[in-house]
Sequence to fold (153 residues):
Amino acid sequence: MVFDSLSNAHLYFGLSSGISTALQFLLANNLNDMPIGKYPIQGDEIFIMVQEYDTLDAATEQMEAHRKFIDVQYMIQGTELVGHDVLHNQTISRPYNSNDDFLLVSNKPAFFSAFNQGTFMVFFPTDLHMPCIINGHSSKVKKAVIKVLNTNL
Fold:
């Protein structure tokens, strides 16, 4: 997992060409005005989903992981908590489904981080994450999730 300010994005360009493309897209575009929706960046290999939602109670959520795509998440407006852990021997509550590139675990996160405007997170296949969580009180956030094809499959 990577968690940093977008102003430091250049430090992570070497992780992969796909992650570099995603971070450069975030740096080059004003996402405040981008409408909610899904947009291609590099065909089906790299695409962005702009989302707006109200944050949720952690007690009702579960951690997730993906295999086919790496998540590059960027907080456009607002704040939320994100729970984290490393995928190892947790209890799988929803087995991995390659059609939607998703699995869920019922264990609680090892820790939470405050995800604030102007910061980004990168989640690799072994990074469990529980996004969208209330940070103090429920609030509306606008977030971008860039899906980057995992070329290490």
Summary: The chain has one domain: 2-149. The helical segments are 17-28.
